[in-house]
Amino acid sequence: MLARVANNLFWMGRYIERSEHIARYMHVNYFSSLDAPNELSRSRQFVLNSMLRMIGDPESPEGTELNEEDVLFKLALDHDHPYSIISNVKYTRENANSARDLISTDLYESINKFYHFVLKYPVDHFLKKGMYDFCINIIEMSSILRGKIRSTLLHDEVYAIILLGVNLERANQLIRIINSKYKDASISKGGYGNTFRNSFEWTTLLKSVESYDMMRRFYKKTPTSATTLEFLILNPNCPRSLMNSLNQIYRHIRVLDNSFRYNKNSTAFLVGRVRSEYQYKYIEEIEGNIEQFIDGMLKNLADIGTKMENEFFHY
Amino acid sequence: MAILDSTIFSSYERDHALFDELYDSNGKVKDIYQKLFALYGAHSIDDYMRLNEKAKSSFFNQGITFQVYDDKEMQEKIFPFDLFPRIIDAKEWELIEKGAIQRSRALNLFLHDIYHDKKILKQGVVPLELVSSSENYLHQMMGVDPPGGIYNHISGTDIIKHNDGKYYVLEDNIRCPSGVSYVICNRTALKRALFGVFNHYETHTVTNYAENLLDLLETVKPKGVDSPNTVVITPGMYNSAFYEHSYLAKTMGVELVEGRDLFVENEFVYMRTIKGPVKVDIIYRRIDDQFLDPLEFRADSALGVPGLFSAYKKGNVTLANAPGTGVADDKAVYTYMPDIIKYYLDETPILNNVHTYHCSRPDELKYVLEHIHELVIKPVDEAGGYGISIGNRLSKEEIEKVKKQIQESPRKYVAQPIMSLSVHPTYIDETNSFEQRHVDLRTFTILGKDKDFVLKGGLTRVALKRGNLVVNSSQGGGSKDTWVLKP
């Protein structure tokens, strides 16, 4: 596979995954705030700030009044904002275009439909009453794309590259969402029945990554900071967990580099190292140092991305 | 035929001066179209409009589009596609196929000759200055032997049916002819919309193009290569034919590369992959001669590969088509095609050339001057349609003026009869009915070493504006599925 095209496919995977996370975060947080148990979590400003934090927008100065429509527009349909859903979908299609000969007609057609759906979505309708409909469609369409990737592509290097993008982005988004909700939980603690440990925000966090139901099934208890983080970071069977993403990344990097002996400068080596570290961690080690964990993991993921670029996409 | 009174064909108006592909001169539907006519006639206009919309969205969703700018935004448009197919029977097709191969072979021999011994020029069959003055003549190709001896691997031959009912070739395209992907897309779209009609006809498939292309390209692999590595090179995804480039790469199962993906080392060509350099042996190039190699041709080309031409001259890589083929498909050479076929193959042309009168020859000059109102007058050395006069559109004074110009310098002019393209019923959105529209046909011929292939089908292009003879998609042309029937 051409190095240039591999790079495009890798990013195609990332953009698909990114759109889905933004869409879910937006509607889950918005709706959970509507009847949240405490005043702060119910405040619209609180939610809007959380959304901006999730897409990595710089914190607005203390006391700034955010306009709801502006924020929703920015996250969803703003052509000029590089992290908006519409920009992500545009990039998805652009990257797919350049690799059109490598991916299945079926997959391409779905990406194309996805693109036209977002492009044609009326802004006004979205802002007034279409937010849920829009977000749900984005989530469904990205699932369809992943389904077509899995079921219509040859499971070879092309597939491995796309899934590396998907999983690296999934891990990245998870960490960003944990970061955002962790901050929300810290801010909103203090009210009656709302300690940090039992914060309402842990439920929202789980819902933001579509893991609430399965978490309940697994622990059969109301989420706490420890169980939530354990489930999302260390449980390899949770498809959205960090551990699961690391396992996937490892599996797919081995398709590209199956050398028996690791070269210590290779991507596979770094991935294996990070993965092993978390395989043997327990949640108490992380829970006390969440900020350190978040910074460290974001750096690890960025390093893996850079290494991949140098090793495979250099052209 | 009362049932047809209120159908989509009922308001079809025929201009009797035009050759209609559907109706014979007595106004009767031709035998091969009878069944199709009945099947389509059974649709109400509403039905038909719905099908038409469905076909359009099929193209749109597949991303088979081109981009245009309106006032402020970029818009994606589909190429207009007509649901009523054109049918060519087995006998007529045999003639087209043989004729297309004959022309491609003759052109191949002509190219070899003018880049080697130039016998045909020395013997005066084709004037020397025709070739030496052509801007498409590449002196760099002099004495170069392309692998397998093939220059024009892929030819697109533009054919029309004149009002005498005979096929004429208007143009041979042997640089980078495009359009073949639309042949296949048109078939797919028609199947999706109206699969039932295929039950009543035995039509040749068109989806075997890519496999034959790869097969034949591999017959002209460089010497010493066992299993060749083939790629398609494209100018990039913003090129208007990018869909076709990616389609061909995908269906051949080969890489689609851009110039920046390739490099040349020790006169071998390599592509940059995730596992390092991989040698490339055959390049189906969809970039023009001038952009192939900045070291040899246009130095400012960012699309090409530095050193590619030297690797080619060494015989280490096959380029299809070969550089320099453009010299053989221009207007001036076209007029000598019957002589070229005779000279190299000792055969008479199977497909007609539009007859050309050279005003430099006294008896032909006399004919031209007497029949100017039924001729097209063209200067020999102007390209792009400049200086052309169409006889029946000239006023009396203008005719006198043209006559004077010709008499002053007869060597500068040639003349051809005014050709009339046949018409085919075509669905027109604005009127929701079928109307007569002019059509042509582009066929696709592939030459390999001792092997050839003509795609059984072709691109029937339609001029969508009433009375218009220009079928190019850049000028609002559409296309139709083209059925070649089995005998």
Report on this model:
- The complex is a heterodimer of chains A (315) and B (487).
- Chain A is mainly α.
- Chain A has one domain.
- Chain A is built from 15 helices and no strands.
- The longest helix of chain A has 32 residues.
- The termini of chain A are close together.
- With 487 residues, chain B is of the alpha+beta class.
- Helices cover 29% and strands 24% of the residues of chain B.
- In chain B, the strands form five sheets. In chain B, strands 3, 4, 5, 13, 18, 19, 20, 21 and 22 form a nine-stranded mixed beta sheet that branches. In chain B, strands 7-6-11-12 form a four-stranded parallel beta sheet, with helices on one face.
- In chain B, β9 and β10 form a beta hairpin.
- The two termini of chain B are 29 Å apart.
- Chains A and B meet through α1, α5 and α6 of A and α8, β7 and β9 of B.
SS summary, helix count of chain B? 13
Level-1 CATH class name of one domain in chain B: Alpha Beta
What order do the SSEs of chain A take from the amino end to the carboxyl end, as H and E? HHHHHHHHHHHHHHH
Mean pLDDT over the full residue set of chain A: 91
Q: Rounded to an integer, what's the Rg of chain B over CA atoms?
A: 24 Å
Number of DSSP E strands of chain B: 22
Quick one: overall form of chain B? globular
- Bin the helical content of chain A: over 70%
Key attributes of the depicted protein:
heterodimer; A: 315 residues; mainly alpha; 73% helix; 0% strand; globular; B: 487 residues; alpha+beta; Rossmann fold; Dna Ligase, domain 1; 9-stranded mixed β-sheet; 4-stranded parallel β-sheet; 13 helices; 24% strand; disordered N terminus
SSE order and pairing:
The complex is a heterodimer of chains A (315) and B (487).
Chain A: H1 3-34, H2 39-42, H3 44-54, H4 68-76, H5 85-98, H6 105-120, H7 123-152, H8 157-188, H9 201-208, H10 212-219, H11 225-234, H12 242-256, H13 267-279, H14 283-287, H15 290-312
Helix pairs in contact in A: 1-3, 1-5, 1-7, 1-8, 1-9, 3-4, 3-8, 5-6, 6-7, 8-9, 8-12, 8-15, 12-13, 13-15
Chain B: H1 31-41, H2 45-61, E1 65-69, E2 74-78, E3 81-88, H3 90-114, H4 119-122, H5 128-132, E4 154-161, E5 167-173, H6 180-194, H7 209-218, E6 230-233, H8 242-252, E7 255-257, E8 262-265, E9 268-273, E10 276-280, E11 282-285, H9 308-313, E12 318-320, H10 331-334, H11 337-345, E13 352-353, E14 357-358, H12 362-370, E15 375-379, E16 389-390, H13 396-408, E17 413-417, E18 423-428, E19 433-448, E20 451-454, E21 459-463, E22 477-484
Helix pairs in contact in B: 2-6, 3-11, 7-8
